[in-house]
Amino acid sequence: MKSSGFTLIELLAVLVLLGILTAVALPRLSFGPDIEQRLNADRLVSLLRLTQLRAMNDPDAFTLNQPLNQCGRLVITSARFGIAENCDNALADSYPPQGPLLGINQPQAIGATETFPVIIQFGTTVSGGLLSEDAWLGRPYIEQAGSLVRMTSPVDITLGGVTVRIETEGYIHALP
Known about the structure:
Organism: Oceanisphaera arctica
Number of strands: 10
Helix content: 25-40%
Protein name: MSHA biogenesis protein MshC
Strand order of the largest sheet: 3-2-1-5-6-7
Pfam families: N_methyl (PF07963)
Structural class: alpha+beta
Distance between the termini: 56 Å
InterPro entries: N_methyl_site (IPR012902), Pilin-like (IPR045584)
Largest sheet: 6 strands, antiparallel
Shape: elongated
Number of helices: 3
């Protein structure tokens, strides 16, 4: 007589796999009111990485009077952050509440370890319009008093309860 069903070993294996998946997946899921802050932090990380990739690949990302000279920069104020949507609009230190930018356009509380506005650029150009070694490697620069200075310590940007860190060598991540 043939019986159908699962063996005890199969049932235990399924229960163990479900337990492992639950232990790994549930802590990563965000629930509650801080989900918006986490999403905004993820958007900031994505925009920083996009800016970094543009800077690493396009010599015109920093060259003045070129159509794409704003692609390698990201501006963070105390209420907003973003990059120029089409790369050819000059993105002022305090860009208007409504304008062509990718980022967060609704006011919110943003904190940083630098004074606002924080203007981050990944690399520079050298003579002949070529990318510098720092641009190839995606190393961040920060604008201070109108000139670009290579970051010597990590910069933390806080959106609500979530902190995004930009390391001196260009690694961008949200802190747990």
